[in-house]
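Exercise 3.2. Students should predict the tertiary structure of the chain below and write it as structure tokens, then compare their answer with the key that follows.

Predict this chain's 3D structure.
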Amino acid sequence: MSWKAVEMQVALPRTQDAGKIQDQMQQQGRIDQNQLAQTLAKDELRKRKQVLEQEASEKLKNDKKKSGFKEQETSRFTAKTNQQHQQYKHPYLGNRVDFNG
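Answer key:
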């Protein structure tokens, strides 16, 4: 065998291996980019859910405070009007009077 034939026997497998390695390196970049994109999408979705849950809980707290405040105001108002009615009880205004007599 000549030197060129021996060199070609050694060189061909090496070029095939180099091509495979180069292809894997190119694909690895794509894989890394896809994984990064998926991770970012998951993080963003988690953050959105967290914000929505927090807003919902704050809204619920505010609604409870408002309803409690309204109930307190209505109870104060009714108590105040009841006291006023008891203080200014007129002898015949607001009562039934029998005129058939």
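Discussion points: Residues 55 and 61 are 10 Å apart (CA to CA). The two ends are 146 Å apart (CA to CA).
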